[in-house]
């Protein structure tokens, strides 16, 4: 059975005490859950929205991801709201399940092409719809989930090299925007039955 190896790079907007971005990474024997959240705006109020999402997701990690997204819309109603992407990798089926609202993006470097699509809207402000897609994953397939603190200029680049942590750190160094919070999570499917989820 496979597992995930991940790397993470994150920082707040310069001059802000906290980041409005956040992420969750949870793995059990059969699946891995990754969620990246971008609270609307910057500073403490954006962080309040993203941390409310983190708290809910940690308590409902086993739920279907679209059900989690719909519930988050209620949970964030009293906040500014957030862009949210939720990914579950099923290690039994070798399948990535994806649901995204707003401008937290996933870019996949898979043997079989995969182009997950986000729907427009803000979680907490009643998005018009939700969409869950499924994509085949194989060992060594890699994906990057990132907030708009990473410039879209990197999307013209070919598949990055190195460990997930090296890729995440490099993207932050070369393409991080000085005027925004930033979170970048890189995950690679690996062989092995023992969990290897976490920063290398």
UniProtKB/TrEMBL annotation:
Q: Which SMART domains match?
A: PP2C_SIG
Outline the extent of the PPM-type phosphatase domain.
3-189
Annotated InterPro entries? PPM-type-like_dom_sf, PPM-type_phosphatase-like_dom, Ptase_RsbX
Q: Pfam families annotated for this entry?
A: SpoIIE (PF07228)
Record protein name field: Phosphoserine phosphatase RsbX
* Species: Labilithrix luteola
